[in-house]
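Q: How would the structure tokens look for this protein?
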Amino acid sequence: MTLIDAIEKGFREAGFGHRLVGVEVTRNLDETFAMLLERGLLSESLYKEYADSLRFEPPPRVPAVRSLVVAATPSPPVKVRFHLDSGPLEAVIPPTYISSASRARCLRLLEEVLVPQGFSVARVPVPVKLLAVRTGLAEYGRNNIAYVHALGSFVRLDAFATDADLVSPGEPRAGLSPFLVGGREPASGHWSPPRRMGSCGACHACYHACPTGCIPFPEEGVVIAAERCLTYLNEHEGDWPDRLDPAAHNCLVGCMRCQLVCPANKYYLRREEVVEEFDLDETEIVLRNLPAEALPGSVLSKLSRLDLDEYSTVLGRNLRALVGQNLVSE
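A: Here is the predicted structure in token form.
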């Protein structure tokens, strides 16, 4: 069994999706972001804020990267139950936030195949949604969220680097071919517009459901105004903008409005499971928006299990916004 076959078998048996691609693809990804910046479709301030996760750098454990593995793992929305003086409140955590377990599982699958053969592997920051779309693992929705076959948008994407050559013989090492723009080759030779699901063509459900108006109408473009998105707003400290309707709040962090109305997700909607609970005293601590290092052990361990410890300074503010909508259970 080849390395490629062994990796495919491990991911298939785990119920995960994946694609293998040569490291040369990172050049194409860099050029895509350069084009977005040049055309004004991506703000410079937003790019700088997330630059560390968008620019490829070989991880220390794999200095001579040959291939990348992009992985897709199921990530359903879940709930967390808080206890307030007025009663319990269950707040939704959207897909992708709870990520450490699936990330560790993917890394373990790869290590079991690659390490015995003398190769190294490590997780690597790259623009993973773009990588998944460009390799055919996912497609964009009108909301710029990645959708994977049989998972919809309830999916976590991660990328891993290895010094093993995982490109099948006869395939281009970059793994990509340029897309045509308006029936002609783009001047850059590598630019490809976002590849959107065919079902988005006549559907505007997410556009109408978006509480901040960050999703453009078809004639207005294909890239969302990310800094207007409720997900962006409730991941960052500060006051809510005056333009934001208080009724827009629907999650502890992130936003589910566009995903819940999306027809591409209709077969994957499930009742959210409560995966963690904070008692009255612990909830009071969360409401203080303390930095992670100032949290008592019990609260920090729970937030860490939810992979939300880095958002501890905004969770209290977000929770108060949900309380303001009278969502407290009887």
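Residues 3-323 form one domain.

Residues 177-193 have pLDDT under 50 and may be disordered.

Upvote if useful.
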